[in-house]
Amino acid sequence: MVLLNLGLPHFDKGRLLLVTSWKMASRGVSSLIHDKAYVDGQWVSAISGKTFEVLNPSTGSVVGVVPDMNADDADVAVKKAYQAFQSWKETTAKERSDILRRFYDLSCQHKDELAKLITEENGKPLSAAKGEVAYGNGFIEWNAEEAKRVYGDIIPSSVSSNRILLLKQPVGVCGMITPWNFPHAMITRKACAALAAGCTVVLKPAEDTPLSALALCELAEKAGCPKGVINVVTSCRENAAQIGKVLCEHPLVKKISFTGSTYVGKILLQQSASTVKKVSLELGGNAPFIVFDSADVDAAVTGTMLCKFRCSGQTCVCANRIMVQEGVYDEYVKRLADRMKQELVVGDGFTDGINQGPLINERAVQKVERLVKDATSKGAQIVLGGKRHDKGGNFYESTLLKNISTEMTCTQEEIFGPVASVMKFKTEEEAIEIANATSVGLAAYFYSQDLTQVFRVMEKLEVGMCGVNEGILSTVQAPWGGVKESGMGREGSKYGIDDYTEIKYVCIGGLQ
Ligand code: NAP
Fold it and tell me: What is d(CA 250, CA 81) in angstroms, rounded to the nearest whole number?
């Protein structure tokens, strides 16, 4: 990654790092910042000795420098995780639960530093980062509890001298790859379920946000997590594919869990076929957000504000295709524009009162620019925003587009930015048809006060998660995941840990 690519003035990187480190120390996060990866309980450099810089997406300043690892480092980490698995799988559920509970307590004690670290490397507003830490820590706590509830089964046999037992056993070493948009929660949501079940983990975080992953390793170690049980291999974007390949094809890895784009998920699924691994995929979405004539329009606008603009529109479940029935279309657009003008404040994540941070990098800004240009060239009307923000860098204006149609690319791809794009529809059937006319199916939302309509629509939408008169779905108690090309498996809830266990059927005979 090169600073000049961000269109920023030329910086003396050494000086910038010193200044940034000093600033971060004054913000109280430096104790959790690491410049080494974490393998087998050791803080290690890349075998190649290479490093890469982690940039603050708001200022372009260097937040940290971490090892730029490759396939060789991943291979070492897998072997260490395999060694650690031999003893970790023998621990009792109570022992694992106790370690995860201490991990949770430590993560709560350090919640402010963890949140500041997220704002530094991801750019999201500090209040949102605090929300992410609370959400992410919830998965540590939840899995500390679930560890003790992995029950087997006894099944009545049709042969009187036989007994049928089902044992649930840990899958083994799990390879994990996570994205940058929730640098803390996307790790705890999967890794803690794996640890609770008795699996060990080799995790590659996103290039943009490796520091949160390393901070979690420090806290896990302090909580008593034995060496090799959790390993984090950091790399820049160029090496991601080779590390992913090692994780997917290594015979010692028994499971892959990935959160990220559908495009990369498909590559990993193909690679995992070579060793018939279990695979969990949390992939991209294209969420419809439907407002029916029967809706409480104010509630729908409030839901849109939460659902669309969380993380500046950079979540997999953000409203991507806002569809409003013709009877309330004009009213909805007007009220949404008013609320956006009144409430959305763009700026650096550490500035009081802001709620819209920068996009993650220049590539993300270019994608949003491309989608807005495509939409306007095909007849979309800009109500608000529609261009890069005056603040420069990775900032983009909070944008409202109307007159959207299904030919526009913004209805076919994830926008992943602060652009609310609104289309008009006539009938319920038409809305459902448009909503389902996509290869992915992660989340959908709709607003209706008509009970029969609520049941009709929720049953017909082809998604894994559905918000009815509700714009926020994330919670540890509910199963998270999609259908169609949005992935397979579920995270969180009582179902999440199942992805990390194998069922062994035992038949005991001769019991007369
Ligand atoms: P991405 O490009 O798929 O990257 C995700 C992770 O995969 C990063 O760690 C990335 O490393 C790594 N990666 C990239 N190419 C790889 C390859 N060929 N082999 C192995 N690993 C590879 O996704 P993103 O753009 O960062 O994240 C946004 C996407 O994630 C969106 O589609 C969003 O919907 C999805 N998402 C889904 C969920 C969910 O719960 N379903 C949650 C959050 C995000 P580098 O960073 O080094 O490139």
Answer: 12
